[in-house]
Amino acid sequence: MKQKESEGLIIGKNALREAFAAGKSLQKVFLQDSLENESLTELLKLCRKNKVPVLQVPKSKLDRLTRSQHQGVVAMVKWVAFQDLQDVIDLAYQSGVDPCFLILDRITDVRNFGAIARSAEVFGINGLIIPKKDSAPINQEAIKASAGALLRLPVSQISESQHAVKTLQRNGFRVIACTEKSSASLRENISPGATAFVLGSEGEGISEQVLQLCNATSTIPQLGQISSLNVSVAAGIICYEWMLFQQSKSS
Q: How far is CA 231 from each of CA 106, 115, 186, 202, 235, rounded to the nearest angstrom?
C-alpha cells in the first residue's frame, strides 16, 4: 500500500492511548514533571512496556511545544498520513459489508476535520478522502480533536474532489452529495451497496463541479429556524444513519 509518512505531535492523554492502541511509532513522550495522577502513571507504564523514551519536563516546555491544552502529555510520533485511494477501496471491499467513505470538499477547519474523523471511526466508515488544495492538515490539533481517530482511520489525499467521485464511481460506489439545497432526505437516499457521502465547507458548500458528478443529493431534515448544521455535526448524523441502515440489514 502506497503511504506517505509525516512527523508531528500527539497532544493529550486520550490521543496518546489511541496511538499506542493503533501501534503507531512513537519517538519519545514528554510528561509534565509536576503532575502525579493515575492516568499519567498508566501512560508511563505503557511507555515502558513499549520501550518508548520518556522525558519528564516542566509545564513551560509543553506549553511552548503545543500552544494549547496538553493535559501534561505530549508525544513525538511518526504516523502514516495518507493512503492510496485505490488500495483503501480494495481493502474496504474485503470487509464483507457495504463500504462507505466520506469525501470532504474544501473543509479547512482542523477542529471540524478532527471531529468528522472521530464520528467516522466510531460509526464504522472506511475512510476519509480530501483534496490536496483547501483541506485541513493532519496535525496535532486535528488529531486531538479526533480523540486519536486520525491515527486509526485511513485518509486518502487526491488532486481534487472530482477525481475522488469519479474513482469511487468506477469502483461501483454511489456518491451522494449532502447539501441543504436538496429536497430529498438522507434516509430516502441510503440504500444497499457501496456508498460515499460528500460534505462541503460551511462557507461555500460543495463545489458545483462536484455536485454535477454525484449520483444523488440529500439533506438532513430540520425543524428549527437556523439554516444549517455545523459540518461536523452533520457528518456525525450521516455516519450514524449509515451505521443504523447497515445494522437493520443484518437483523
A: 11, 9, 15, 6, 6
What does the angle CA 186 – CA 84 – CA 138 come to, to the nearest 5 degrees? Answer: 75
Entry pTM = 0.79
Q: Which three cell numbers stand for residue 137?
A: 492538515
**Beta pairing partners, 11:** 74
Is the separation of the CB atoms in 49 and 21 below 8 Å? no
Query: What is the pLDDT, as a whole number, of residue 179?
Result: 92
CA distance 215 to 12: 41
Cell triple for 204: 461555500
Q: For residue 132, what is the DSSP state? A: S
- Please write the tens of the pLDDT for every residue from 63-93: 888 776 788 888 887 765 689 999 999 999 9
Taking the C-alpha atoms of residue 110 and residue 146, their distance in angstroms, rounded to an integer, is: 9
**Exposed/middle/buried for 65, CB within 10 Å: 0-12, 13-18, 19+?**
middle
Q: Could you tell me which of 125, 124, 126, 117 has the C-alpha nearest to residue 151?
A: 117
Distance CA 240, CA 218 (A): 15
Which superfamily does 3-80 belong to?
Answer: Ribosomal protein L30/S12 (3.30.1330.30)
Assess if CATH 3.30.830.10 describes domain 84-250.
no
| Beta strands, E only, the chain | 3-11, 25-32, 54-57, 73-83, 100-105, 127-131, 155-158, 174-178, 195-200, 216-218
Q: What are the residue ranges spanned by the domains of the chain? A: 3-80, 84-250
pLDDT (tens digit per residue) in 111-158: 999 999 999 999 999 999 999 999 998 887 888 889 889 888 999 999
Phi and psi (nearest 5°) for 168? -65, -40
